[in-house]
């Protein structure tokens, strides 16, 4: 699953999000990004409701005033879009990859463990499997991807092999190019 | 707790990503970098350590007025020169006494700057090269083969049959285009020898493919009933005609040698007017 070839025309049907779903989206976002808690109601107010776009049977995109801000996959966490993250860079749970991983991520690859272990990278030891992360890069200011961990942070460091983080959305992909959906 | 204000992020106007990620894209050299330097010089400086562009508006504590600012060889101004800077650099090289009248000249030639520079290069010689273009196109000034690019149309015109090459750089995404064409540029001026004695000077005749210098000189001799000669001045050919025949000579060149009116200028004391 990724937005690599996503286009805004893939969003065929839009529906206003029910209040209960909106509450669930916000609470699950806060759960994985605790720093967001004090601000969530001003960032995503009760009204107007978010608009939901079903992209595929297992991927839903949410917009606020036509701007894509969140998305959710069937098996993954609720994730913020990168344009949303760039506006509030300090409020999301994050990790950092070493500079060698940047071209791979921008090419649409998932993050292999060494990218989160090598010198220059940062990964909080307390993160557990499934944790949603905003991915920063060594020597860069802005986040370049969002995704979720496929192993716990401790395991990633121990094993240092295979996929450590599944990337759902990265800079330059179809979702990133979609600044707004009317 | 109040919500933090959203940061406004600069995204590359060419490829759309935050500029720090542009180098990973295919169009970095050809599109992103020039755009970033133009639109966000401070960020370009921060990211790539390039020299900050000197914006005349921003350095207000600079006591030197813009018009008299000398553009030194070392200036790596990463914005293209404004017409003022371009003309200042030009007169700085050839005739600094003209520098004070630059604003007047540019007002007169507003919108026709290229014609002005073309005429100037024919009269004086090569334009000093804009450092921005040096950087942008990797132009080496001494290299006769590779110079001249968009915006510097007159650069090599004074050297014989000028070749105009348009360089679009070593682009990865775009194909490298190189356009060649010849440009005819003739400038006629006069100079005073003694009291009431003038000579008419024609330069750039060799830039027309239809004119042979000796034949032209002969034709002038016949037409103006006076002596006319071809002179080699600083590597350029000048045809000198005795007497003040500036305007007639212009018309004569257009009629006799089938040169377009737009390609012949008359230099009226530093001002260039097309033959009418
Ligand atoms: Zn770019």
UniProtKB/TrEMBL annotation, chain A:
Keywords: Cytoplasm
Keyword Translocase: no
Source organism superkingdom: Eukaryota
Gene Ontology biological process terms from the UniProt entry: formation of translation preinitiation complex
PUA domain location: 93-172
Main location: cytoplasm
GO CC terms, sorted: cytoplasm
GO MF annotation, one: RNA binding
Entry's localization field: Cytoplasm
Plastid found in the keyword field: no
CDD domains, sorted: PUA_MCTS-1-like
PANTHER family associated with the record: MALIGNANT T-CELL-AMPLIFIED SEQUENCE 1, MCT-1 PROTEIN
Protein name, entry field: PUA domain-containing protein
Organism: Triparma strigata
UniProtKB/TrEMBL annotation, chain B:
GO terms classed as biological process: formation of translation preinitiation complex; translation reinitiation
Domain SUI1: 186-257
Entries under InterPro entries matching the protein: DENR/SUI1_TIF (IPR050318), DENR_C (IPR046447), DENR_N (IPR048517), SUI1 (IPR001950), SUI1_dom_sf (IPR036877)
Region described as Disordered: 50-79
Gene3D superfamilies per record: SUI1-like domain
GO MF term list: mRNA binding; translation initiation factor activity
Comp. bias (Polar residues): 67-79
A Pfam family that the UniProt record links to this protein: SUI1
Family designation: Belongs to the DENR family.
Protein name: SUI1 domain-containing protein
